[in-house]
Amino acid sequence: MSEPLVLVILLGANADPTTDAVMAAARRALGPEAVVVADMSSSQSDADALAIGARVHARAVARVSWADGGRQVARLHVHVMPANEWTDDEVRFLPQDAASERGRMIGYALASMVQRLERERTEEPPRDAAVTVKASGAPLVAPRDTAPAASPAARTLAEAPDTARIDREAAVTNREPAPGVEVFAHSSGVLGGGATSIGGAAGARWWGSTRLGLRGAAGARAGAISAANVTTTTLFASAGPSYRIPIGSTLELGARVDFIVLHHSATRRETRETTHARWLGAVGTMIEGSWALGSHAGVIAAAGAELAFGTTMVSVGGTPTADIPRARALAELGVRFRF
Fold this sequence. Notes:
The structure is a single chain. The protein is α+β, with helices and mostly antiparallel strands. It folds into two domains: 6-125 and 146-173, Rossmann fold (3-Layer(aba) Sandwich), CATH 3.40.50; 180-338, Porin, CATH 2.40.160. The protein has helices at residues 19-30, 46-55, 99-123, 152-159, 163-173, and strands spanning 6-10, 35-39, 60-66, 73-80, 87-92, 129-135, 138-144, 180-191, 196-207, 212-225, 230-247, 251-269, 273-292, 297-308, 312-316, 319-324, 327-338. The strands form four sheets. An eight-stranded antiparallel β-barrel has the order 8-9-10-11-12-13-14-17. A five-stranded mixed sheet has the order 2-1-3-4-5, with helices on both faces. The chain has a two-stranded antiparallel sheet with strand order 6-7. A hairpin with a 4-residue loop joins strand 8 and strand 9. Residues 127-161 and 163-174 have low confidence and may be disordered.
């Protein structure tokens, strides 16, 4: 029975927020029988790395380092016994990838490399042996394949799926956005009846988890109702829950519900200016999209409906002339910045 795989990962002397995720992902990908050990020494040479691995009877040794100060390119340096050479690879990240996600990807990549190198060592045929045969007094040398039949364990290793590669590919296509806080500002417009208005809003959203968040905003819109010859101003404040789903590595789609307080005012200018106003509640339902432009910034857009808890009538000389309807279409376009 073969000994369990022991992998030593040299992570350097400096603390790194990806360390725990690297170790957890490597252990998961290599299986429960593998032993994965972290080394936090300041060793830099390959000879030192091999000596550290020899002390714990490791069959594989790996060094993880960063190629840039922004930690967007991780360099992997891997050695698997009994070979003499080292194998190198790189893992590249997007600026918005969270530290836990980067660590998970590094762990899967290391495990994938070790599995591949182990298979290659198992499948590598031995050097051809020579057989000498005499014919007509002259020796003839013919090659003979003396490679033994693969053992059941070797066949199992060679035929086994690369679980680390599978998990790594899944991680690439299912990057979860990190919890945190974002601030935003956007233009907005409503359309319904003759009460069309445009304006803007600003606010913040707290993502308490990768999918669920709580949003608050305040803003204003201005418009006109030509049928009554009045201008309108709407002040509003809103708060409510949000939900998002990552689509690839830069796009997010989601939905939100806003509970809104509206302050409608209508002003008519003739011989003298007259303004009437009212407060009322409303609820909004929106479909949202967010496109990342970098590690923090992004473009946001949303479309949906605003449903007020009543119709606002506009009267001229005591006669109802127009109204601000209960239901109006709503659209938004702006930018957001995440911390």
